[in-house]
Amino acid sequence: MEALSGFISLILAGFQTPTLGFLLGGMFMAAMGSRLNIPDQVYKFIIFVLLMKIGLRGGMEIRNANLAELLLPAFFAVLIGVIIVFIGKIALARLPGIRPVDAIATAGLFGAVSASTFAAAMLHLDDVGMEYEAWVSALYPFMDIPALVLAIVLGRLATQKEELKSTHKHKRKEVNIREIVIDSLQGSALSALILGLLLGLLTKPEPVYESFYNPMFRGFLSILMIIMGIEAWQRLSELRRVAHWYAVYAAIAPLLHGGIAFGFGIIAHHLTGFSPGGVVLLAILAASSSDISGPPTLRAGIPSANPSAFIGSSTSIGTPICIAIGIPLFTELATIVF
After folding, report:
1. Domain locations in the chain as residue ranges
2. Distance between CA 136 and CA 321 in Å, rounded?
3. Which of 170, 175, 171, 173 has its CA nearest to residue 150?
4. Which of 188, 228, 183, 232 is nearest to 45 (CA)?
5. What is d(CA 131, CA 125) in angstroms, rounded to the nearest whole number?
6. Which of 117 and 260 is assigned the larger pLDDT?
7. What is the pLDDT of residues 261-299, one digit of tens each?
8. Nearest-5° Cα angle at 108, 104 to 111
9. In the chain, beta strands by DSSP E
10. Packed helices 115-128 and 18-31: angle between N→C axes, nearest 10 degrees
11. Over the range 218-256, which residues count as b (16 or more CB within 10 Å of their CB) and which as e?
């Protein structure tokens, strides 16, 4: 009973956190018909600063870390991203009213990673005093890129299959995986994160990190949450026009994916000493759904997929559930298990 009451308290506290509060505030403003508009260039600048901060911190810690401890969690991150895409593809594609290509795009978005949710999880662990390896941020691309690449490859194959059925042809075009990987790495979000990692690893950016990136992090994250809240409400109205199964999937997927990653994290803990906080962050990486790198990458990579389905389910349902329930749930689970 004490564990249950403690978890309920954490859930209620989660709804009062600034991160979720600003997200819900953005949704409320959009629901009230507010004309509040934050320019796209401001949004892109905020994303750049947040990812640079995460990358710089990860790079600085990797510089001093034992790489042997990083290898197993990195391998698990790749494996988890791939598993999530296949789970979503198989589960969603079998439901009525869902096109295979839309199922794959949705699975790819949930397999990829949300930088804002990950940042919120790190702040939460800092607030509750749960320690974690700072190089955990380096796991971001290990999960994000394989999930997006796999989704695009499967999505293009599904699109070709639909086209061949409609035209009664039997010859498939070759899917260039190398090109897809390069396109993913050249995306603005991953480019910023990788740049931060390299600068943190190869230079000594501590002065600029402590004077600019670290102090500005919470403020910029709160603005990003407002922007995401506005988009979440807009996408929610679009989501109503497509199959309601997306809403069911988006409600279940964050906790299911996070639970799978938590299990892998326990294995890493016993084999390499991966910290409880690191296990929680690995779970949140899996529980989150991409809000930065994923949408533009999947729009370009699978143009035949319906953005209202995969972005709507992620932004409107998946992200709030991950922040409000997933973060406190896996934090409390870590205190019980470890």
Report:
1. 2-337
2. 22
3. 175
4. 188
5. 7
6. 260
7. 999 999 999 999 999 999 999 999 999 998 766 787 787
8. 135
9. none
10. 140
11. eebbbebbbbbbbbbbbbbeebeebbebbbebbeebbbb
Query: Do residues 220 and 290 make contact, with C-beta atoms less than 8 angstroms apart?
Result: no
Instruction: Extract the tokens encoding 64.
Output: 């001093």
Which one is predicted more confidently, 179 or 39? 39
Tokens of 200: 């943190």
For 305, the 3-state DSSP assignment is coil
| Tokens coding 37 | 């508009």
Amino acid identity of residue 309, one-letter, is A
CATH fold, domain 2-337, is: Na+/H+ antiporter like fold (1.20.1530)
Residue with tokens 């994916």: 257
Helix (H) or strand (E) holding 43: helix 40-64
Element (H, E) at 86: helix 67-93
- Between helix 177-185 and helix 294-301 the angle, nearest 10°, is 150
CA–CA gap between residue 288 and residue 113 (Å, rounded) = 6
Q: Which of 145-154, 157-166, 175-184, 309-318 has the highest mean pLDDT?
A: 145-154
Nearby residues of 123 by Cβ (< 8 Å), 6 or more positions away: 19, 218, 221
Range name among 37-51, 53-67, 145-159, 233-247 with the lowest pLDDT average: 233-247
Who's near 198: CB < 8 A, 6+ residues apart? 55, 59
Residue with tokens 């403003």: 29
